[in-house]
Write a sequence for this structure.
């Protein structure tokens, strides 16, 4: 079992819709969770971090964490074509090393 | 401006050659990492260093070597022992976050192609 699992997609949503991206992780002791956005040919950039169960909102982005289910998600409200990218879920190993999933490709079509 | 600089942006390697990818940061971060990304894949950890003069192998260290003689610099050498080196290489550094984890910041990447 991989440490961090994501559906590779692509996930296609119409402009203005809510995009829901999901991630599961295997190590129950993980405490820190991150979402990165990566445009084609570019490096990843951090967009959200979450450490406690529940929701964390930042603008159009909401991260959700459920440690009991070992599940973290990212919701993007009012999706825009500029949101089209690959979204990488990352989890800190106990030694604080960032471990990444393979990413989910999101396509927002006009 | 603070940041992480990787060079070169594109690199071509002949079979049997060693090549070195540069990574420099002026963020004063203690920890630095090298990841490899293949098309449609996530980031796989090659090496990491949490302090100067110390580094550890990651998940796919075979065929690679690193050094960490200065806090600012963490170069990666791709040796001839690496059988399939064509990939996108990402250098990152990290800072402890207020929530207890580490937030990673990336350079712009080096795209290595074997010719």
């Amino acid at each position: 079992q991989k440490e961090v699992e994501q559906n590779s997609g692509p996930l296609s949503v119409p402009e203005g819709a809510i995009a829901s991206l999901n991630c599961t992780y295997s190590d129950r002791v993980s405490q820190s969770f991150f979402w990165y956005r990566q445009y084609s040919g570019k490096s990843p950039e951090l967009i959200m971090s979450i450490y406690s169960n529940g929701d964390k909102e930042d603008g159009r982005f909401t991260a959700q964490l459920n440690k009991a289910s070992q599940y973290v998600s990212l919701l993007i409200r009012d999706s825009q074509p500029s949101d089209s990218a690959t979204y990488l879920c990352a989890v800190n190993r106990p030694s604080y090393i960032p471990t990444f999933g393979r990413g989910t490709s999101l396509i927002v079509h006009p | 401006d603070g940041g992480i600089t990787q060079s070169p942006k594109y690199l071509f390697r002949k079979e049997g050659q060693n090549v070195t990818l540069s990574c420099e940061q002026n963020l004063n971060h203690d920890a630095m990492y090298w990841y490899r990304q293949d098309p449609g894949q996530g980031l796989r950890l090659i090496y990491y260093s949490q302090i100067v003069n110390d580094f550890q192998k990651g998940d796919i260290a075979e065929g690679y070597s690193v050094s960490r003689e200065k806090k600012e610099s963490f170069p990666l050498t791709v040796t001839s022992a690496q059988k399939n080196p064509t990939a996108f290489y990402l250098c990152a550094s990290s800072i402890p976050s207020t929530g207890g984890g580490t937030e990673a910041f990336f350079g712009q990447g080096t795209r290595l192609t074997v010719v």
